[in-house]
Amino acid sequence: MAQTSMDKSKDKEICDAPRRPNKNTSTEKGAKEAPELQAAPYLHLVLAKAPINNRDVDAQQSADSGEKKRNLVKNKIDESNDRPKKKKKRKLKLNTCDEELVFTKKVKTHTRPTRVEPNGKIEKTKKKSKIDINDPNEIKQRCSLLKNKMLERLSGSQFRFLNEKLYKTTSDEAYKFFTEDPSLYQVYHNGYQIQMAKWPVKPLDIIVKEIKSRSKSLVVADFGCGDASLAARVTNTVHSFDLVALNDRVTECDMAHVPLEDRSVDIAVFCLSLMGTNFIDYLVEANRVLKFNGLLKIAEIKARFKSTEIFTKIIQRLGFKLLNKDESHKMFVYFNLKKLNGITKGGLPKLKLKPCVYKKR
User: Fold this and answer.
1) Which domains does the chain have, with CATH numbers?
2) For labelling alongside 27, which of 1, 16, 127, 308 has CA 20 to 30 A away?
């Protein structure tokens, strides 16, 4: 039976269609030569239908981030290793004297140290001189400097103790304390001079100037005179009183009881000397020795006053009248008063001032 043209075309398509290889009949040579060709037509279908494992994806991401962190740490370590290391200071100790000297060898830098001036300009500082450890004279000099510094610190601590003693005891107790060891008063006076050197304006200079402007015949009583500097700077007759006589011009006594006659002086001076818990007795004693219309000059540390008005009111109850008061100075207040009448020691007003205690530096 003759085949039609449609049947012939079907047979041709069947013949041309790719045949499925038979496992039994395929040779090893064909399997080795084209394995990719066999799987290629179906590979995209398998990948499309394969389920995604989230755990594998997270593990891969964490591994990548961990690798990045390790690389960053490694880069920082490499950078720190590349930087030049600072040399440690080398110390040499010499026991050639009582004090121990320590010499340090500093690391040299390319830039010189600078400082900023108040006007805004930058100024290069001078290099510190180096110590020659082979020069015995220089070593002795350094030893003496160290000793002096230690002595200054020791004298500073002694001054603070003695200063507090004067402010927190009565004049009678302080007088007995310093008469037992007068050298302690010299230590106090040296510390006082060091403190005074730091003041921009010294109250004694103002008092000296005022006394020089008056008659030379006026008699002056200096309560708490120290080394009697006032008597040395004016030509007037000056009676100088203090707890210890540092020189021949000073009369040693308790300032609540000075060896002068009643109404025998024209000017009484208290220059930073209202010390002791009974300083009101000093002012009563000044009233006793002053003539009527005699002048009382008081210079005292500003920080001791809660109110200068209260102070002047109580002073005026002791028989004085305030002429003027100067609070323009940074460190002290200056009072000028005049004696109007006498006063008895009974029923004295109470008056307190803050003790001036220096803090440890």
Assistant:
1) 136-195 (1.10.10.2150), 200-339 (3.40.50.150)
2) 16
